[in-house]
Amino acid sequence: MVDFLVSSGWDKNLAVIVASALGAVAVSSLGLVWILVSIWLERKFAGRVQDRLGPNRTGPYGLFQTFADVGKLLTKEDITPAGADKHIYNLAPIMAVASVILIFGVIPFSHNWIGADLNVGALYFVAVGSFATLAVLLAGWASNNKYALLGAFRAIAALISYEVPMILSLAVPVMLAGSMSMQDIVKGQSIAYVFAVPVSALIFFISQLAEVGRSPFDLIEAESEIVAGFNIEYSGMKFAMFYAAEFIHAFVICTLTAVLFFGGWRLFGFGTPGQELMGWITVWAKSFALYIVVMLLRNTLPRIRIDQMMGFNWKFLVPLSLVNFLMVMFLARPFTPDYAAADAAVAAGGLAAVIGGIFGNGFIAELPRTVVLLIANIVLFWGAVSLLRRYGAAQRQLIEARYGTPKAVAPAPATGD
Amino acid sequence: MQTNEWVFVAISIAVAFVLPAAPIVIARFLQPRKPNKLKLETYECGVETVGDAWVQFKVSYYLYALIFLIFDIEMLFLFPWAVAYNQLGLFALIMMTGFVVILGVGLVYAWRKGALDWQ
Amino acid sequence: MQVDVVQWLFFGMLSVLVIGGALAVVTTRNIFHAALWLIVSLFGVGGLYVLLAAPFLAAIQVLVYIGAIVILIIFAIMLTRRLMGLREVPNNQWPFGLAAAAITFLVLSFGIILSSSGSTPLFASFREPVLAAVTSDSLRDLGVALVDPNQYALPFILASVLLEAAMVGAIVLAREEN
């Protein structure tokens, strides 16, 4: 991003390398800076949802909680279990964090601000995310602990399963934009894709949630069950790295969803060249709004069992995303946005010019496709939900046949206090 | 030209591995070091480890990984097609439908045979 | 000319990763470590794809090979061996393996040298900055070519049949074991 500024006077290749290095450090630190905020935010939010205050001792409103946590974790003794594979044991937490902060490199923060506008950006972040999966496997194996290994296997099975609907639903914005470059996908969204293919957005969001291992898909590191799964044997700063990786990952998926489906740095005609700060703020605002949704889900939904999780993925999400893909494929092609025709319509004046003036010419070009896809998506969603309902009713009947209908629990009588 | 972008990627990979390593190294200087035998033992719910560290590995793990691999390779074909999508004609759409349907048949087979169930 | 230096530098580093990783795979005693060195080697190959102006293949390499195939290999290892006793894998046939590898290497090198003595001199392609060739159009061309009836449409459909056959076959095999 700083490319353009530095290549003035210096030897060109050196300038590229230095600028890239600075940019890389800046972008990679984004994730770590976010940690400082998010740990506090998460705990305050969880506290409020549970009708309590959350951290309020360490500094005003508990704002220094993160620093206190970091301080504690820094000074904890680092116990490497006997028989553990030392190098892999040390590598796993580093790889977990590295893989998530690398994702920030391809996120477009504005028209000009992007770490690396790779023309395969969409696949890059998936590929990098697969390193996070590997880190789990390494951690589980290196701990020389059969519970860690068992936890790691379950985690990996779940993680790789949820990559399938994620990639399938990722293919939809790539199709609509005609490019895998993240910047191009944002530029193709005069109307945010969430309005055209909400089902894809939903599938992407859900499968990314499962990838992170956030509630309701918590079982990957179910803290109260298999005793933290693959990171049983980790303590101190290394554990902090896994912890940090989860938080950063949770935020990055919000940013990704914001960029891929919610329009990224675009806001109905704003975010044009010269308004870089506006674009930057827009991306963060959208990600943050989605992150609040993530936190809400975490604090309200119960944990799903592993067999329910796998069944949900392979028997519902994957077929749904396949059907969605086919449907979008057939319906979007005839309505490919014609930007030239939109420009002509706006130039001709009338209603088109008015709309074009407010929302930009691209809006008009993409409108027919958006409307058609939206209707089809709503039909698909309704169909899928009714299938789910029927399945749920069948399951409930099965259980009731075995155990009888549950009696309604009478509330305790008032004690007059 | 993509060279600049990939140089950025290369450097950020290096940075991304160094950045988390730093706190761990710092912690090494700040932490107490009092290893004793009990702390170094592997964890087993607070009791001593019983028997060999042998984990039963279910076949279903392998099957999930395999089905994932098949679908992963399907993506490999899907993405260039998706990039070219806006220039493609009806024949191409039908080809892709055939591709997806053939793989969908495989998925249905797996479903029927119970390969997708968690044992 | 300076693009050359950077390219040579990265090529050198990536080659070390690929060859070193491959050597480590076959020489290490611990089979799990072998799988991990394989990751290093495949990652190097992915980097080489980037140098060859094929970023899509690089991403696919990491995603499919490292993200799926290596995991499958590790699962297969776990499935067929007692888990924690993975330390020693004695191999007494390594002289034959070494001989076979050396012969293959000689044959391939002769093939490359002989085929390039004609129109294109041996290391000509190293002199040109290859990355200038990549554009987003090349990816689009690939997509069009995949479904073009005159180009790769038939292999495209055959690939899907092959994949499905693999899936069905593996499930049949796994079921029979149970």
Element-by-element helix/strand order of chain B: HHHH
Secondary-structure-based class of chain B equals: mainly alpha
Low-confidence stretches of chain B: none
What's the oligomerization state?
heterotrimer
Q: State the helix count of chain C.
A: 6
Radius of gyration of chain C: 20 Å
Query: Judging from the principal axes of the Cα atoms, what is the shape of chain C?
Result: globular
Structural class of chain C: mainly alpha
Strand residues, percent of chain B: under 5%
How much is the radius of gyration of chain B in Å?
25 Å
Q: Span between N and C termini of chain B? A: 51 Å
Mean pLDDT of chain B: 78
Put simply, the count of helices of chain B is 4
**Describe the biggest sheet of chain B?**
none
Detailed description of the structure:
- The complex is a heterotrimer of chains A (417), B (119) and C (178).
- Chain A has helices at residues 3-6, 12-49, 65-74, 86-101, 121-142, 146-177, 182-187, 193-196, 198-212, 236-261, 276-300, 306-332, 339-347, 351-359, 361-403.
- By secondary structure, chain A is an all-alpha fold.
- Chain A folds into two domains: 71-325, no CATH class; 334-398, no CATH class.
- In chain A, helix 10 (236-261) crosses helix 11 and helix 13 (339-347) crosses helix 14.
- Chain A starts with a helix and ends in a 14-residue tail after the last helix.
- Chain B contains four helices and no strands.
- Chain B is flat and about 70 Å long.
- Chain C is built from six helices and no strands.
- The longest helix of chain C has 26 residues, at 2-27.
- Chain C starts with a helix and ends with a helix.
- Classes of the chains: A mainly alpha (417), B mainly alpha (119), C mainly alpha (178).
Can you summarize this structure?
The complex is a heterotrimer of chains A (417), B (119) and C (178). Chain B is mainly α.
What is this structure's SSE topology?
The complex is a heterotrimer of chains A (about 425), B (about 120) and C (about 180).
Chain A: H1 3-6, H2 12-49, H3 65-74, H4 86-101, H5 121-142, H6 146-177, H7 182-187, H8 193-196, H9 198-212, H10 236-261, H11 276-300, H12 306-332, H13 339-347, H14 351-359, H15 361-403
Helix pairs in contact in A: 2-10, 2-11, 3-10, 4-5, 4-10, 5-6, 6-9, 6-12, 9-10, 9-12, 10-11, 12-15, 13-14, 13-15, 14-15
Chain B: H1 3-30, H2 37-40, H3 59-83, H4 90-112
Chain C: H1 2-27, H2 31-51, H3 55-80, H4 94-115, H5 136-147, H6 153-177
Helix pairs in contact in C: 1-2, 2-3
